[in-house]
């Protein structure tokens, strides 16, 4: 990918400036190499003084031309590597960037301190020893810088503790709410956001979006329908709230749930999910979870024994005599002696209520004899 291929005038100007710098460096290097080649190789094999003068001019010029001709290839390689590094940096968390920078600086300092010792032991061999010392110094510097950056990047948690052990400060817009696939497909997040019960920026990781797209392209018709519904929910969510799509990913983690927990830890955010397993894992890792199912159960009306309801009996219950109906909010009503009333709408009286992990269950008795 070349900068000059873009339409941004600033990028084109940067590419042109880079090309000029490369041309100056490669041209000068080629000129000096051509002169050295004439001095140490060509001149000793040419007897004619005229040809020596000609080659004295031609050899450096040819070297400079060859150097300039190598500029496009060198620039392409440089820009490709630059894009690769830029993408790698985008995937790093702020703590990893700080750790990598500190490690890089430490590695370069160590290499610089080793330089004097290295030159002292090698330069006694003359010019050849000096060249060897320079080469070894460059290799040691690259190795120390790379090792320091890698080790420093892995110390992101330690850096957070060294800064005072304080919790990650909330961004100006509020604590980030990281949403997962289950919440998007569920769709109730739209009403919760519209009602103002979910504040702060909503964060959608790119790897969650990819998972949702895979579901929408599934060969299973049910999964495909759910995936497409999730994409529609995202479109509507962008219209009513601030939805930030982050490119952060973790190549060393394969599970999406583990990636979500890591992202929440790095951002100091909260996970919004309906997934029971993700809920438990996040709590173990110390991440705050906002579970929409728990919210729905919390806002359901409390029905006391003796209260009367009107409900439609839809199907049989587990027991032979039971019938089952549902309230508008999805609460299951188990009706004693309701099996014979399937398909009818009847008045019932609440006898008891049971709270389960799946939700609230109401037991009732029909008033009809």
Helix share, percent: 55-70%
Q: Count the domains.
A: 4
Residue runs with pLDDT of under 50 for 5 or more positions: 1-7, 157-170
What is CATH's topology name of the largest domain? Rossmann fold
CATH superfamily of the largest domain: 5'-nuclease
The number of distinct helices, counting runs of at least 4 residues, comes to 13
What is the succession of H and E elements? HHHHHHEHHEHHEHEHEHEEEEEE
Radius of gyration: 35 Å
Alpha-beta classification: alpha/beta
Which sequence of strands runs across the widest sheet?
Answer: 6-10-11-9-8-7
Tell me, what's the shape? Answer: elongated
Mean pLDDT over the residues = 75
Give the strand content. 5-15%
- Summarize the biggest pleated sheet: 6 strands, mixed
- Beta-strand segment tally: 11
> Which CATH first-tier class of the largest domain would you pick?
Alpha Beta
**CATH architecture label of the largest domain:** 3-Layer(aba) Sandwich
Which assembly state applies to the chains in this document? single chain
Provide a compact summary of the structure.
This protein starts with 8 loop residues before the first helix and ends with a strand.
């Amino acid at each position: 990918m070349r900068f000059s291929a873009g339409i941004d005038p600033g990028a084109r100007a940067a590419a042109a400036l880079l090309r000029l710098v490369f041309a100056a460096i490669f041209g000068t290097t080629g000129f000096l190499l051509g002169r050295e080649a004439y001095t140490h190789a060509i001149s000793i094999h040419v007897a004619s003084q005229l040809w020596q003068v000609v080659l004295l001019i031609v050899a450096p010029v040819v070297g400079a031309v060859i150097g300039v001709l190598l500029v496009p290839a060198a620039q392409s390689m440089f820009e490709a590597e630059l894009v690769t590094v830029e993408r790698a940096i985008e995937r790093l968390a702020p703590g990893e960037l700080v750790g990598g920078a500190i490690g890089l600086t430490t590695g370069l300092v160590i290499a610089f301190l080793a330089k004097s010792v290295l030159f002292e032991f090698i330069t006694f061999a003359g010019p050849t020893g000096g060249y060897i010392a320079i080469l070894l110094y460059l290799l040691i510097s690259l190795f120390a810088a790379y090792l320091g950056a890698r080790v420093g990047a892995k110390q992101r948690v330690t850096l957070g503790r060294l800064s005072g052990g304080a919790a990650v400060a909330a961004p100006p817009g509020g604590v980030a709410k990281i949403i997962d696939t289950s919440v998007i497909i569920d769709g109730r997040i739209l009403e919760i956001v519209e009602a103002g019960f979910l504040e702060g920026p909503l964060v959608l990781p790119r790897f969650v979006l990819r998972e949702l797209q895979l579901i929408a392209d599934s060969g299973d018709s049910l999964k495909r329908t759910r995936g497409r519904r999730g994409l529609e929910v995202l479109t509507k969510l962008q219209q009513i709230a601030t939805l930030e799509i982050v490119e952060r990913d973790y190549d060393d983690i394969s599970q999406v749930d583990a990636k979500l927990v890591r992202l929440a830890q790095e951002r100091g955010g909260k996970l919004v999910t309906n997934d029971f397993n993700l809920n438990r894992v996040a709590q173990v890792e110390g991440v705050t979870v906002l579970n929409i199912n728990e919210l729905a159960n919390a806002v359901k009306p409390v029905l006391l024994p003796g209260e009367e309801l009107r409900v439609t009996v839809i199907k049989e219950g587990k027991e032979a005599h039971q019938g089952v109906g549902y309230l508008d909010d999805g609460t299951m009503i188990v009706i004693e002696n309701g099996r014979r009333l399937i398909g009818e709408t009847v008045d019932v009286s609440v006898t008891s209520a049971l709270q389960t992990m799946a939700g609230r269950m109401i037991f009732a008795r029909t008033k009809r004899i």
